[in-house]
Hints:
Elements: H1 13-25, E1 64-66, E2 75-79, E3 87-91, E4 96-103, E5 106-107, E6 110-111, E7 113-120, E8 124-131, E9 142-148, E10 157-163, E11 168-173, E12 181-185, E13 187-190, E14 196-199, E15 203-209, E16 212-218, E17 225-226, E18 231-232, E19 239-246, E20 249-264
Amino acid sequence: MEFPARPAAPKFAPLFFSAILALCTAPAFAQAPATPPVVPDWALPSSPTHVQVPPPAGFHRPTVNFNTPFGVFDGQSDIGGPLVPGSASHDAASGRYTITSAGYNIWYTRDEFRFLWKKFSGDVSAAADLTFPDPNGFGDRMAVVMIRQNLEDDSKMAMVGTHGAGMLQLASRDDKGAMVTDMEYRFGARLTGGSLTLIHASRIGIEKHGDSISLFVSVQGEPMHQFGPPITLHFDGPFYVGIGFSSHQPATSDSAVASNIAIENSAGKVQ
Length: 271
């Protein structure tokens, strides 16, 4: 019995396998550099030639949330979706948190910053040592201890904040989408020769006692004490309490360090 002859292999097979080999061994092409984020004019920081203004009515960016426990916090968020994503690191041995963020501001009708938070109801005492590793950073960058109704960019909130240039403030947005109002303080020391140098507070804190919100401060290591009058603002539980940082530059990141963090679900415990 005769079997038919096996058909010859297609003539293109060697070429086909050669093409596969060439694709597998071809060098990777370099990726084009990332396009820098486009910053709207209203978000640029104030300068001798520019004045920062509130965002346009109805402008929002979604917050990016990370609902994973992080040190003493329940989670963290990039409030208002900054153009450059933020980050945070935690040194468990020292209890230090380094917060890195861009963000145009924590002000006006909406905010952009990195926020480390815990959920609470009732009264709260919270405090931290807040410092800036880069002494030459932007003067309006801000590290805060904050109470926030929710994680949306225009949330009702109250905060105590320390600025790169030394200003201390107790500020609030009294309703969703409202303009922030504040009380501002500066501490100075008169040096030999008569010049005045601003002093950064060594520790700041916030207390919620019912609807009364107060600023606490230690200027040079003395025991924490209330400073200035309280404000009145109601929060529905649960709300968010934590620490945050904004570089005050919408496309440029900077960092703040928070240490010796103390958060209690009670009034009268700011320390």
